[in-house]
Amino acid sequence: MRFSKLLIPTLKEAPKDAVLPSHIYLVRGGFIFQVASGIYDFLPLGKRVLDKVRAIVKEELDAAGCQEVQLGFVTPAELWKKSGRYEKYGAELLRFEDRKGNEFVLGPTHEEMMVELAGQFVNSYKQLPLNLYQINLKFRDEARPRFGLMRGREFIMKDGYSFHADREDMVREFELMETTYRKIFTRMGLDFRVVEADSGAIGGEGSKEFMVLADSGEDTIVVCDGCDYAANIEAARRSESEDVPEAPEADLTKFHTPGVTSIEELAHFFHVDPYYLLKCVAKKALYDEGRSEIVLFFLRGSDELQETKAANSVGANELEDATEEELEAAGLVPGYMGPVSIMRNEPEEGKAPFSALVADLGVPMIFDNSLKGAKQMICGANEPDYHIVGADLDILNEEKFADLVQVKEGDICAKCGGRLSYTKGIEVGHIFQLGTRYSEPLGASFLDRDGKSKPFVMGTYGIGVSRLLAAVIEQHHDDKGSIWPASVAPFEAVVVVGNVKDEAQLSAGEKIYEALKAKGVDVLLDDRPERFGFKMKDFELIGFPYAVVVGKRLSEGKVEIVARAGLNRTEADTEEAAERVAKLLG
RNA sequence: CGGGGUGUAGCGCAGCCUGGUAGCGCGCCUCGUUCGGGACGAGGAGGUCGAAGGUUCGAAUCCUUUCACCCCGACCA
After folding, report:
1. Contact A453/A440 with Cβ under 8 angstroms?
2. Helix, strand, coil percentages, rounded to 5, for chain A
3. Overall average pLDDT of the A455-476 stretch
4. Which of A30, A65, A287, A320 has most Cβ atoms within 10 angstroms of its Cβ?
5. Domains in chain A: how many in total?
6. Nucleotide lying nearest to A157, CA to C1' measure
7. Does residue A164 belong to any structural domain of this protein?
């Protein structure tokens, strides 16, 4: 291709609303153009990169035995009503009617459609397993699209769904997909981590995310410095620390603590490490059909609540902060809520004056695992200005315990004992063990060996294809522009003719260009009547892996080969330039 | 959805406070000079000032409403 004929509208100035390098360089480099919030046109260069990313995804998936299909982007609302997600999916689901008044949605994901498809044509265990995927548009009416291709409303996703006769086979496929995804992202030159993830409302037992490490990532991930453990903060686990602070010593009793409501104030008031304070986080849990209830989550004062874990522990769709009014309406005392009430004992020799009971607050109480058998805790007394000290929580045996804590930096790795720390990641892939979550309600089943009808056991696997363009640049750029890995570069090399009016330069450039093409290199000829510096700036901005510069030393039979990464330049004889570049590209 | 900000030429911006013929830089078109790091000169094209309503002799400018876009947060199978 010739640069002079291609629509590559590079810009000198950054668009004012772009903040991330990937967004800035995709726009400045003439890859994409914003049409509306979260909706972008792909210009020729952007389309080329997109196609290369798609090709890699397709190649690896096909090699793993998956089959590509393409489902309708516009999907009947009826299917969504059948799965129960029509209402549940919320405002992100774009709904509309056709001229006859039939209801449709723009597909934000395609579980329903794909299950329907499999249910239609797969009747026997002999047809299993089956892994179908598509690389297709998705539309989610995001509350806040941002960062260019990073979080669009319209975007391209590869979504795959596998169907199995039993759980074992599904887990086998899940692992196959993990290795396949690793290959895909490695080929794109990405530095990524596979992290344990929250399975969330989609359900299932296993879920892993593929995170491209980048400061601009929207997800916080927890990594271990001692082993390969990595998890999304929403799912990260830790080991209980062994060096616990010294425990206070107090007999069980009620204590006057006027106006002391925060953990910080309490720690100061009692001169006690927050580890021995019982933190109560009150939330309003929201369920299907608008149902909601107040739930109290208890954890150590030294810990923070992880909301996703908390929501999962009660099966809620989401949690909201409970207001003081709502707490009072539920008969609770904000600032002084505790799971324990105390009772005065009959005076008796050798017996403590009080004993503890589980308080009956009339709302669900969930306890973090670290509170199992906790001793000498200080907690709210469920009346204004009083706390209970010296509470031993072994009376809570019958209560519900769950993992509620948000792992902190410096916590101990549950796998190897190393130290955990935070890093940021961009989610480019997510694989789930789905089970029968969709096949059951949608009535998608097959006849098993024993002649009985069973719902498919499913897995689902996603890759954010258009988001990958942004992720690659986030990891591969400098202050001049993008630096594309050859595997996804819009062109693998550009031949820059220093001065097209110099016929010798132009014809030498064309010769090298033809030679590169003959060697199978995806090459662009920059034959624009621009000055040298202008063209070099564009090369750096767009970020082709290599440039062959035909210029002033042509008379001595020399051209330059410039590597975009590092901008190192080497001289080459005109005749051997193509060969050298082809070799560099492998 | 809460908080903040911005809408003036393809892009980046000034003008608005204090109402009076819509400007600058880049880009674009023509000609000439230049030609290894985003050249220079001359000439030119291009704008319902986001939209609607109001105040006024007169509105980019003041008032009201509305829409769009961006940032922080909430949210994000």
Report:
1. no
2. 30, 30, 40
3. 96
4. A30
5. 3
6. B77
7. yes
User: What range defines the domain where residue A435 resides?
Assistant: 45-69+107-236+422-474
Q: Is residue A128 part of a domain?
A: yes
At A113 the three-state DSSP class reads helix
Is the Cα dihedral A260, A263, A264, A267 positive or negative? positive
pLDDT in tens, A487-538: 999 999 999 999 999 999 999 999 999 999 999 999 999 999 999 999 999 9
Nucleotide nearest to A143 (CA to C1'): B75
Question: What would the mean pLDDT of A89-102 be, rounded to a whole number?
Answer: 90
Q: Cα dist. A211→A173, A193, A296 in Å?
A: 20, 5, 33
As for the ipTM of the complex, it is 0.95
Which of A411, A441, A474 is the endpoint of a domain? Answer: A474
- Do A117 and A187 lie in a common domain? yes
What is the CATH number for A503? Answer: 3.40.50.800
Length of chain A: 586
Same domain, A441 and A516: no
CA of A435 to C1' of B17 (A): 65
End-to-end CA distance of chain A: 21
A215 CA vs B7 C1’ separation (Å): 31
Q: Are A461 and A177 in contact (CB under 8 A)?
A: yes
Of residues A400 and A31, the one with the higher pLDDT is A31
Residue A509, domain member (yes or no)? yes
Nucleotide showing the shortest C1' distance to residue A204 CA: B77
Comparing every residue's Cα with the C1' atom of nucleotide B12, the nearest one is: A13
- With CA of A317 and C1' of each nucleotide, the nearest comes out as B77
Contact between A522 and A491 under an 8 Å Cβ cutoff? The reply is yes
Beta strands in A441-504 (DSSP E): 445-447, 453-455, 457-464, 477-478, 481-482, 493-497
List alpha helices for A339-478, DSSP H: 465-475
Domain co-membership, A456 together with A518: no
A198/A117 same-domain check: yes
Name the closest residue (CA) to the C1' of nucleotide B72. A144
CA of A16 to C1' of B58 (A): 35
Same domain, A264 and A396: yes
- Evaluate whether residue A470 is within a structural domain: yes
Bases of chain B below 7 A from a protein C-beta are 1-2, 11-13, 25-27, 34-39, 68-77
Q: How far is the CA of A26 from the C1' of B72 (A)?
A: 24
- Check whether residue A215 and residue A347 sit in a common domain: no
